[in-house]
Design brief:
Arc Repressor Mutant, subunit A; alpha+beta; 5-stranded antiparallel β-sheet; Jelly Rolls; globular; 39% helix; 2 domains
Length: 258
């Protein structure tokens, strides 16, 4: 069994297989913060997921996957229908994979390997898994690490704001707007962001806009719509911003899987 239906109960920690593959299509979903006793590779060949782990927020368009070691708290969210692939690995196999949590680039070969393993029968003999597993481990270990993460502040005032308001905004508030929402002065907010995220608020806000842009574009959003949602003055201003931060235009960034 590899394909499950949305809403189907599933607890990977009750299974002893060395590799457990999951494939399904999921609509709006929030997994909540949780952890597994197995290592996990999380990937969406279509659509986009946002993921929170290790105090960071990131997004997983079809060119990115998340490697989550055993015991790491994480939360995955989907707003629209996403083709969801998840691979879980026993402690023995996880020793061959990265020790730390990371977001990696997915090339064509790694995508094919993930897709094949996600549909493996859970009772597939180990000897029939060996060649594919070894190639997967090599590709994942060599995959370039993606650094587009958003560190999340832990100050109680900002954590409450993030929980209740962050998902409601396409474009993050300006510092003056955030003052009104949080009830703290701009200098205090700026100090908190610099201390707890290592980024001034304006840089943090730009990173948020970039991750949201990747998410909206991966969901099929038009450049003009995404630019407007994120409060850019024009399409060209948005494209310039995107290229400055990623080194590629939106179309090239989302389709660069070679």
């Amino acid at each position: 069994m590899a394909r499950i239906t949305e809403g189907q109960q599933f607890n990977v920690d009750t299974l002893s297989n060395q590799v457990i593959g999951i494939a399904t299509d999921i609509g709006q979903h929030d997994s909540g913060m949780h952890k597994h006793s197995k290592g996990q590779l999380l990937y969406a060949p279509m659509g986009c997921m946002s993921i929170t782990l290790d105090g960071m927020q990131s997004v997983l368009p079809p060119t990115r996957a998340a490697w989550i070691p055993a015991g790491v708290m994480h939360c995955a969210r989907m707003r629209n229908v996403v083709s969801y692939r998840s691979l879980y690995f026993s402690a023995e196999l996880a020793k061959l994979l990265p020790m730390k949590m990371c977001i990696v680039e997915v090339n064509v070969l790694l995508k094919v390997l993930i897709e094949r393993m996600a549909f493996w029968d859970w009772h597939k003999p180990k000897k029939e898994q060996t060649n594919t597993l070894m190639l997967f481990c090599e590709e994942l270990t060599l995959a370039p690490v993606q650094q587009l993460n958003l560190p999340l502040p832990q100050d109680p005032r900002l954590k409450k704001w993030l929980t209740t308001q962050m998902g409601a905004h396409f474009s993050p508030p300006t510092l003056s707007q955030l003052q009104a929402e949080v009830g703290a002065c701009g200098k205090t907010i700026s100090r908190i962001f610099s201390r707890e995220t290592g980024m001034p608020y304006q840089a943090w806000r730009q990173q948020w806009r970039l991750l949201k842009a990747i998410e909206l574009l991966a969901e099929g959003g038009r450049i003009s719509t995404v630019a407007a949602d994120l409060d850019f003055a024009s399409d060209s201003a948005f494209i310039s911003f995107f290229r400055q931060h990623t080194g590629a235009t939106p179309a090239k960034y989302l389709n660069n899987r070679d």
